[in-house]
Amino acid sequence: QVQLVESGGGLVQAGGSLRLSCAASGSIFSINAMGWYRQAPKKQRELVAQISIGGSTNYADSVKGRFTISRDNAKNTVFLQMNSLKPEDTAVYYCNAHDIRLTGYRYQSDAWGQGTQVTVSS
């Protein structure tokens, strides 16, 4: 099984920046897509940004131009640089790994991190 460990959340004022990191560990051969989701209180979990192993990216409209996702394939790590943060960005942010090839020709569809709180004060 793959484990994901996130770091970098916290409290920041509106207009500020935070950088989230997520490291995947386990018997990993490759991870096709890595991404970040978020869930605010009483709301459904939503995709924030995703990046493929080839570097193609996909962003939620609400974060385009403010957030940047990147990854280090050699270290199975994904980052989310969040700039110009707004109070509506407040949520628990979850790291996701999708379409995971494991050693020994095994496969895992998805893995999730435990979540990290991001709070943006006005």
Helical stretch tally: 0
Mean pLDDT: 97
Radius of gyration: 14 Å
Residue windows where pLDDT falls under 50 for at least 5 positions:
none
Query: Can you give the helix content as a percent range?
Result: under 10%
Structural class: mainly beta
Overall form: elongated
Number of strands: 11
User: Termini, distance in Å?
Assistant: 40 Å
Largest sheet: 7 strands, mixed
- Strand proportion, as a percent range, falls in over 45%
Along the chain, the helix and strand elements come as EEEEEEEEEEE
Description:
The relative contact order is 0.33. The protein has 122 residues and is mostly beta strands. The chain is elongated and about 50 Å long. It contains no helices and eleven strands.
Quickly describe the structure.
Helix content is 0%, strand content 62%.
